[in-house]
Automatic annotation (TrEMBL):
Assembly description: Monomer. Binds directly to the core enzyme of the DNA-dependent RNA polymerase and to nascent RNA.
One GO term describing the cellular component: cytosol
UniProtKB keywords: Cytoplasm, RNA-binding, Transcription, Transcription antitermination, Transcription regulation, Transcription termination
Gene3D superfamilies linked to this entry: 3.30.300.20, Nucleic acid-binding proteins, NusA, N-terminal domain
UniProt subcellular location: Cytoplasm
Protein name per UniProt: Transcription termination/antitermination protein NusA
Amino acid sequence: MSKEMLNALDALEAEKGIKKEIVIEALEAALVSAYKRHYGQANNVEVEFDEKKGNIHVYAVKEVTDEVMDSQLEVSLKDAMAINKAYEVGDKIRFEVTPKDFGRIAAQTAKQVILQRVREAERTVIYDEFSAYENDIMQGIVERQDRRYIYVNLGKIEAVLSKQDQMPNEFYQPHDRIKVYVSRVENTSKGPQVFVSRSHPDLLRRLFEQEIPEVYDGIVEIVSIAREAGDRSKVAVRSNDANVDPVGTCVGPKGQRVQAIVNELKGENMDIVEWNEDSAVFISNALNPAQVVDVIFNPENPKACTVVVPDFQLSLAIGKRGQNARLAAKLTNFKIDIKPESEMEDFYAQQAEAADGEELLDVYEEEFVETEAADTVDYEETDDVEAELDMEQPEEAEQTEE
């Protein structure tokens, strides 16, 4: 029995990855419960499992007292000193009370408790393993689906792919191999639950890291992503090395790198644009493939702007169902209003008039200041002349009297 128990614990640790100490702790707790149930023992029972030999020992723990009130919980000082003279009142003594048939009873009673603890330990192992993959990408196999979820086998656990996390242009069949983004891992009462996504923008980020070594190494950095899953995405990139072209690096020779990502996403269109510190340049890049004539920022709202494009490229800049403009706004975090050049002629004319008016005002103010200064000088000169005349008049008067 002892060897079989030890072999079973070793096999459980090797196959399930559950540490032997966890199972032994569960076993000891189960044996205490079994002993109390079958022998009506009080709450002073301890069970010890010998990890080397596999033997099980049951001990009744009693307290040393002067007067014994309950023989199951207490032992007299006289009896304690007969065992060992060093015992004093208040000490705890363990007496072995292992029944002869306890092995059979323990095996029957503790089976369900041990299985439950083993299941809990397995859940903990799985949760710890997959929580490390949260916000990362994994490959799985489509198992089945129902009205709510598609179930993806990730190896030790089935992950769920909800409708909002699915790509609208994809149809999933059993045994299909797909790459999924682990959006979150929860430890529920029914066990670990892994939620995966195919529409999350960070799936695109992880695919770029897998396909493009420069992105993985940090030489090329993905600044922002705007994605409408299954249809089109825009990715803003910048280089941390002056000798590396970020857009060319991501596209790859003959577009091989970006094409691998497009194939994984079942033909989702991909626009890779270069990030720039100048918001006007960044917005112009984000609206590719449309050409931008001018970017006018709203002084009242720093996150809003008007983009001027040639009349013949207005529809290209807006995109199908406004998609190009919408993705550019998400990518740049700006509210973008697109106007054709023809509608902006009046605006430019008003700006020119306003500029001319400001120039005229400046000229008028300069002339006014100069005139005022001149008048002040003349007035001061008049005052000086009058003062000089006043000084001269007494001398003339004196000459007249003489």
